[in-house]
């Protein structure tokens, strides 16, 4: 059954969700910080609201579903800082609410496995901010579902451009593994949760195959028929503080709950199938076995 969804921070993941829901008759409002992005939202059937600045309260009053994807900062969650009382007042009208968090809340596990019952142990500032934001949203009394997303990739966010340009680097850190998720699989998890609400539930959103980052770059090169970039030891790599922080954590994330409870069958269960699909979408003639 279609409804009305308000998305705070209508970005990459929310766009994939909207592409699934709009054809089903959903009315979707999405906030964006930039008026320049409003036409992009309109093009996929989303009513844009430039916010902060614009009036989001009529959309909040109309919504029976709410999704928050804006990242917290040192001052906390920006949506709740501005609208916590209004959102709490809307809680009785909401049939479903979702918060997009990150698997970074689990911190460094030395390559070990985590699931939704693993206590958060963030080791980065971003991870600690996300744990705090999860708690802030949970305190509002919403029918809240928390989605802890692994590293996101998809159209426009694959490694192919850098491999083609010769700027891709295979940075190797012993024992390092990341979990990933294709943006279209995020969208189908969210849609499945909307169809099967279970307020208070937390879901890890990742594929079946945690892998070292250098293997992903090597696979992209193989698919393109280009030389595999040389390996660069982590200790010798010049990285931004943001990039270096990603290598501070290594873990494998379990995704059984999205399958067992939401009935999700991943479109791209590993990075190999996801990369093949991305390349074929870019150029069907580039399809390779």
UniProtKB/TrEMBL annotation:
Organism of origin: Wenxinia marina DSM 24838
Top-rank taxon, per record: Bacteria
Record key words, sorted: NAD
Classification lineage: Bacteria, Pseudomonadati, Pseudomonadota, Alphaproteobacteria, Rhodobacterales
Presence of the UniProt keyword NAD in the record: yes
Protein name: Nucleoside-diphosphate-sugar epimerase
Claim: NAD is one of the keywords in the record: yes
